[in-house]
Amino acid sequence: MRFLVFAIPVAILALSSPLAMAEDTPRTLSVHMRDTTFAKRVGTFLGKDERPDWLKRATESEPVGVTMDGKPYTVLLACKQHDCRNHQFVLMFDDKNMYGLRYETHDNSPKEELTWFNIGGGPESIDGKTILYAAITGSLYNHPKAFQAPNGQ
């Protein structure tokens, strides 16, 4: 009986340990940016384009897996705290490629300022833009399976 009384608090402690929590922590943009290789890759990707200050303290979404041109990508969204509808940044990447969109607007304005990153003449020019903009509008998060190819395709 003593073992059982001792085992329960130990199990609770183990489940609440930083290691257990780390496994539950979503791999958001800020988590990825702690990896110096990834952070350097993003820095190169953004180039001379000025990064908004709000990105350092952004509200972030959990990653979403998508398929573009038959290949899996990860999509990460960040937005300005307390002003998500007006200031957003979305990043789509795999091991080799990275694409992005910075979205700016003003409350109730029909004008949207879209800054596309690394959009060329490949599949990202149509499908990539669609996925990135779908993240901004929330469609990607509301219908994630619509942006994934069936297995084997």
UniProtKB/TrEMBL annotation:
Name the record gives this protein: C-lysozyme inhibitor
Record-linked InterPro entries: Inhibitor_vert_lysozyme_sf
Keywords: Signal
Signal peptide positions (record): 1-22
One Pfam family, short name: Ivy
Species name: Acetobacter suratthaniensis
SUPFAM superfamilies linked to this entry: Inhibitor of vertebrate lysozyme, Ivy
Domain of life: Bacteria
Coiled-coil positions: none
